[in-house]
Batch of 2 targets.
Target 1
Amino acid sequence: MRFVDKPLLWDVFCQVVDNFGDIGVCWRLARQLVVEHGFQTRLWVSDLEAFRRIESDVDSRLDVQSIAGVEIHRWDDDFPTVVPGNFVVEAFACYLPEVFIEAMARQPKPPVWINLDYLSAEDWVTGYHTLPSPHPKLPLTKYFFFPGFTAETGGLLRERELAPERQAFLASQEQQGAFWQMLHQTPPAPGALLVSLFAYENPGLPPLLKIWATGEKPICCLTPVTRTLPAIEGFAGRSLSEGEAVRSENLEIRLIPFLSQPGYDHLLWLCDLNFVRGEDSFIRAQWAAKPFIWHIYPQEDEAHRTKLAAFLKHYADELPSTARQALNTFHGAWNDPARAGEIAASWAMLRDALPKLREHAGRWEKKLLKQHDLCSSLVHFCKSKL
Ligand code: TRH
């Protein structure tokens, strides 16, 4: 008789602080662990309603449900008694339930415990990646795992088939047609610059919309209804809802629904320029190989400024100097409320640099593709600690 080994089990913990980045990252990771690496995976989520926004199959009334092979559990104060898996991921330093930590310590072979950290291009990350942190009282060790842009980090989340899927989508009129149909939209007029907009509240947005409207080239801006809605309503001079469009001179803004994660990828692939924010959409824009503008998540201690500068230093390093200056200047104005007045002049520079930025985005994607993806690196590391 042959015994078939039970697949190893992962527990991924996601505390949704705000927005969609925490669950966006955890959901990608959990799916990849199942689909690409054949593990069993439990995903513990504190806010199923936020989860439902990016994955419409989620039923926020259920305590336990299975989607894409991932066992999804509501994570609330009343944590059940469970035997921990072989690998435990706490995303972004969310605190695991005490009862679960105690159960981990009781295992004959305690799980490999990972704190999956936020993405940063800062140099110090390489020194901290995979560092162990012993528990002060229990026989447990937690390892820090950092995503990043170099081989000395954990890499970036990227599904195995992502690049070929993008190429197939861009080569297929049929797939693109289906996307527009799903949005209940027609493609923009030929010659218009197609822009996607996903950002936090930003005093740079009203002047940007104004300059887009009066610019020479038509611009079609697709924006899921999010925190930028009030600024767009201010520009339109009326209240707006999903499905509506605003036209002003050479600018058309279309308010589209918040998409599923794959639908959002399609949007990024199609657009000529993507405005993204936070962490996960910022990474997806890089896999889209198109020029993008990053609205970094603002931190109270202003730490985001250092993070932004570190990324731009890496990303813009090989750009010709005019395009580099355009990219740096626009990011400076877009990410600093005090510099919103510089947006119009910065846009003129950025618009002229778009062809160079486009070439560069393709080169950057190819460079990143040489790295191991984060999920594979994590699996490799965790197995080595088992
Ligand atoms: O939502 P965010 O602002 O999340 C942020 C960041 O992760 C930040 O680092 C963190 O500290 C904070 O949350 C708590 O932006 P982000 O990271 O881009 O996540 C958005 C997710 O939503 C991402 O997975 C893409 C997805 N998305 C869709 O699925 N459909 C959409 O239409 C859009 C616009 C986004």
Target 2
Amino acid sequence: MSETPIPAELAARLRTARRVAVLTGAGISAESGVPTFREAQTGLWARYNPEELATPEAFRRNPKLVWEWYTWRQERVRQAEPNAGHLALVEMEGRFAEFTLITQNVDGLHRRAGSHNILELHGNLFRAKCFSEDRPVESWPDGAEIPPRCPRCGGLLRPDVVWFGEMLPTSSLRAAEHAAVTAEIFFSIGTSALVYPAADLPFNALAAGATVVEINPQPTPLSPHVTFSLNGAAGKILPALVAQVWGDAGSHS
Ligand code: BV8
């Protein structure tokens, strides 16, 4: 018997649902060893608050420090592997007519796990763009200067992530809003539901009449509003959910 039984009513709805959307946050990568956004930073970075570093002001003030923080995070993610929670979401995407995976994470682990229809609301740690032109840069000459410079205009390169105070990519946000208001079932997994406008999405889904499921070991501001609250680690609950709803993984009915 799986240690985290999924409510029978939720299992029944999942077996008949056609359109499902999922919002993930840093918590789904926690079991891959990637520190969540609000967990204490370790070592050199312990003295910094991520919300102070992840801003254009911090980059203008100290571009080298911010660039090196992202280089440190890239190394942490390179050493990480997708975990059972990421893999269960790959299994789930094949079970519905429409499945949209919306992530706040910039670690690229959903793609490495094999997910397809992914909306990266906050960008990606491994992409860079020109700070002056605000346009992606695929490659740049190896050099001592940190941050490197844009090969087109000589401006500083920056990570292609959305910082606090910056707009989210319009197309991804619009697609995420559409997925949230058309989903029959909306999952909010591993997010503290504090960062907007991503944190609006589960409320948009609720307002449109969706069944909203939260998976998190801790309560969040969303918890009192959801239809089902599964308290525990995503890496345990999601595989248990897939096994209970569809039998052993991989046996497509
Ligand atoms: C913007 C990329 C506007 C960079 C990130 C109201 C409306 C609109 C905006 C605002 C608003 N109020 C305030 C704002 C401003 C701000 C905001 O929301 N601030 C918050 C802090 C109050 N929003 C913005 O600035 C956004 N931009 O709104 O622009 C605008 C308007 C006009 C003109 C110009 C601009 C931009 C937000 C994007 C910021 N960038 N990341 C980088 O990564 O370096 S956000 C950052 O936080 C990460 O992406 C992270 O994913 C995200 C959210 O955090 P979580 O993912 O939830 O992670 P967290 O650590 O918080 O929580 C982890 C959870 O996992 C916990 O609940 C834990 O219990 C759980 N967990 C732990 N282990 C497990 C687990 N769950 C499951 N299994 C486990 N094993």
